[in-house]
Batch of 2 targets.
Target 1
Amino acid sequence: MGCVESMNYEILMRNASFRECRDYIRQHFREFIDVQPGFKIFDIHLIGIPPIAIGLDADFIVFPYTKPCHGTFLLRIEDTAEAARLRRLKK
Amino acid sequence: MDVVLNGQELVNVSGEPITPRGSALLVLGCPQVPVQTSIALYLINRLRKSGIVTVVAGNKSANTLLLIADPDRHYLGEVMDLDRAVGLISDKKRDFDRCFVFIHNDAGVTYAATMGVISKAKLFTLIYGEHYDDLVKQVDFPCTIIAAKAVHNPLPLKKAIDEVTPWAA
């Protein structure tokens, strides 16, 4: 179990395809960044078909989280420091 | 090359260690489709007989199916957690010459695309299951596709692998 799974997260989508999650982020969040697979967020390296979209909404971060048996989840986690780090990467 | 499988070590018929011809990572998917475990052991055997060191990465269930099937490790070499493998490769701490990704669902395609970016390995996608043809259409990144409609019977996928001979590539 990764640390993300022990965090206080909200599941916005479950059992979705990776592309559905990416489309959701781009359609529902004015602020997002594109990263490559392997990009580290919290304690995990992101799995995904490039580019991977990460949504930002104030201190909330929305990102895809893929597991082999359960497909891709779209998770929403509040973390002020991580949101700030991601915003710095946009510049 | 005369190669004998001896635990994790590759040795010749005299029992002397040999220099590996390369390395291969097998990325396992969800083990709910029965052919995965059988094909993984078959592929490991063929790769190791060609002098290629193999490492398996999967979730706990997929790895345990292999470990229980090969308790004396006649075929299996190193086995590691999938998330750990992704982390090591992403951090450039480890890489392989070949990477085989088992795919029977959308998550499998996602893992394969990830390996194509983070690893320098020659990428092979093993696509199987009831809806293998739909999954093949989703693979739009560089790799060698090995695909067959195989759910319970591994022979169609074995045949497809034998035609590609990835251990010789």
Target 2
Amino acid sequence: MSSDSGDIGHAFDVYGGIAQEPSSRAIYSDVQRRGRRQHVLSADDELIRRCLAGDERGWGELVLKYRRLIYSVALKCGATCSEADDIFQTVCLVLLEKLDTLRETSKLGTWLLTTASRMSWTVVEKRRRKENSAGAAYEMTDPVVSGSLPEQELVRLEMQNTVRWAVEQLPRRCRSMITYLFYLEKPLSYQEIGRRLGIPPGSVGPTRARCLEKLRAVLGRRGYR
Amino acid sequence: MSDSVHVSFERLIDYLEGKLSEPDRRAVEEHLATGCPACDAELAWIGRLIALMRTDELVDPPKEVIERACALYSKMRQQSGASAHRELEAVLVYDSHSSLQPAGVRTMGGEVRQLLYRAEDVDIDLQMRELERPGSIDILGQVLPLAGEAGDLAFQSVRLMRGDEEVGSTFTNAIGEFAFEEVEEATYGIGLRLKMGHVNIRDVSL
């Protein structure tokens, strides 16, 4: 669930307008701006094609699109934040290395999930074995002591990542509206949403419907119906 | 509400969110009770979408972690451009099983074998650790610059080869370390894709 910061695109906004930044930061920012203008959810095969053709922005889009999925899988497998940082980096490296040999690019999300999940289990198991042999308490109550995340959970995570990515392609007002209503632990009242967005509370319902229609259009263009 | 008139998208959302007045809610339910396939499908889609958003617990990585991943692309391109045609053979300069311990080399326990390879400006330190399970070994490696910073040796690809077959792959960490764990005893090759070229270590017998 999002924090109370209120804007799902907040992570990107902090980079908006920063000039003379290092290359990766500039790409990060530029990718986001272009994504918003076009309101298009780039297909993975198109992004991979761009990466292979030398377009660094294509790579930036891939990283941004799957950042939450990879990182969250690592955490769900029991990795610490520091381990999740390394796992994220390594999964990105593996992806970059294998870009030109990937088959079935339409299943990139699933491939990343599997890769991140395997890598995470290895890291977590290794740490736990060490802790165990050192006499530290072994948390048998932890649901992720061994094995893998259930298939259903993996599918859900991938869908949620796709929806979040699609939400980020929407105009700012819609992003905020959807975040206030559906991503906050305690959704805001129509009164408060109206105040924050500068619209009458009575317009919140119709605006919400239009935003969800737009979201459906973005998802639908990529076959998520 | 007539059976032939579909429920609007907005109204379906209100229905799911419990925002309709009692008469409006009943009207929507009466229409849905007719089995209208279009409204059923619409309602199911909105319900799934809202449920996915409301249960979303995805976490953003820290911004510096994302930036580092974005920067990998140019780093790798520079690297492959500079080193694409250079194949370097690493030479064994030290083996703890067959040499006297030179000054400066750390003393290892009896179950650890240390090998030191050199290729131009880098050393590759390999430590083979025997595991409790017979026939199984951990390979712990570190790429070390003979001079200068180790920065260029971070996050580089390392492959474990058995004959022509790749049996493992990993990356160096921030200080050039890498590991292949629980490897079966056999003869292997190790390939490192470094900025200076592809470094090959051949015939490492475990």
